[in-house]
Amino acid sequence: MRTILLCGFAAFPGAPQNPTARLARQLDGAMIRHDVCVRGRVLPVEWDGSWPALKRAIEDESPAAVLLFGLHVRAERLRLELVARNRRELGRADAAGAFPAGPAVGDGPDELATRLPLAACAAALREAGVSFEWSRNAGAYLCNDTLYRLARAAGDLGVERFGFVHVPLTDECVEATLEAGGLPEVFCSLSEGALERAARALLGVV
């Protein structure tokens, strides 16, 4: 039996409902094939907490692959991130009200690449009927921060493949996000069903 670790993120300022948390809970325990099991975890949106939580999950589950999903309220479709960047957005508070300690994630190169079968991912999403785009900019908040740390430690942790998918709001989260004042003037959304379909398509090839 092999394991794929699928992680979403908890709520954060401006996003009281994070659809990726629900996705991780929904797919926890799902069987992708007869010999591949998904373990879903929800990571805190905290500068000092997100990576330790992910590292513990990797040590507990010993996954062959890790697939991270994060919310990007300005995304127009799914965004498959190609690289993590060694940068942080100073002055951006996390869900606990803390701020980053400096402008860089840590010692290391400016960029680190993800490890996904890109052509197979693209084909699977197209077959599932889900719109997507490639991205070389994962931002400078906790999504990018966690991805960079994963990219730097993957080899030592025995993770063969890993990647990050930014998702728009789901239709079910729009009202709560509007009330929290977290919506841009123009935004896109997709259904929870479409998000789960996309996740299963990616899990099938990762």
Automatic annotation (TrEMBL):
UniProt name for this protein = Uncharacterized protein
Organism of origin is Antarcticirhabdus aurantiaca
